[in-house]
Amino acid sequence: MQVAIIGANGQLGSELTKFFPDCIALTHQDLDIENKAAVEEFFKNNKIDIIINTAAYHDMNKTETDPLKAFSVNSLAVKHLADECLKHHATLIHISTDYVFDGKKNEPYTEEDTPNPLNWYGLSKAVGERIIRNHLPNHYIIRSSGVFGHTGCRAKGGGNFVETMIKKLAAGTDFTVVTDQTVSPTYAYDAAVAIKQLLEKKVPYGTYHLTNSGSCSWHEFASAIAQQTNSSTKILPGTSTASPIKRPDYSVLNNQKIKNHGIPMPTWQEALSHYLSNRPSPK
Q1: N or C: which terminus of the chain carries fewer CB neighbours within 10 A?
Q2: pTM exceeds 0.90, yes or no
Q3: Which of 57, 99, 121, 140 is catalytic?
């Protein structure tokens, strides 16, 4: 079984390469999925059984001012992959997001709920999902939320929420984190384990919510980081009203469907503890 991982240097992609050691690990420099001819050539030259697409254009600020770039990566490039998977009888595992929902449900979203994104990023990801569903039978759409992985530890400026909070806490100055957005965080390591099990167990094709269990506001998440790192810096409650970008107030994903297939997902508190205990030293 030949597996190719797109975005292999990202938070989830880098974890996946550990569980698929014989995979073809692809960065943007190796394969530009926006380039249809390049995608066709890659499939022509490699016998691919499964391709895992973790790549996305997710800079929220830039996406709001340049939505065409988001659609090029998150929608059109996905069609390139789906086209070639269909042609070559390969399975596509595509990583999507909680931002396809509007947050108005006020209870965990299931895979059967209808997407209604609030921003260009969410819309571009929702379109990518629709392309796959309508075009390629052999697919898994995996929705995650608030991903944090160890490659973020060495990213300039903090590559994920946990690292950003650790830097702020270390500065020793009180700061504010919003209380009015609730999510279900996803530890990249746990997600990679679950994706590997999904294939091993031959789980039926379809859409699955793959996050750690439980939910929290960003303020609660930040407070847990402070507690687990023994920081005394105060984290003050705030609201998201000042942000120009619309985000769902409640985008918790119900992960019971994946659990029903015998794939357990640890709580986000357990995931945070594991992340911090195994956190590499920043360079």
Answers
A1: C
A2: yes
A3: 121
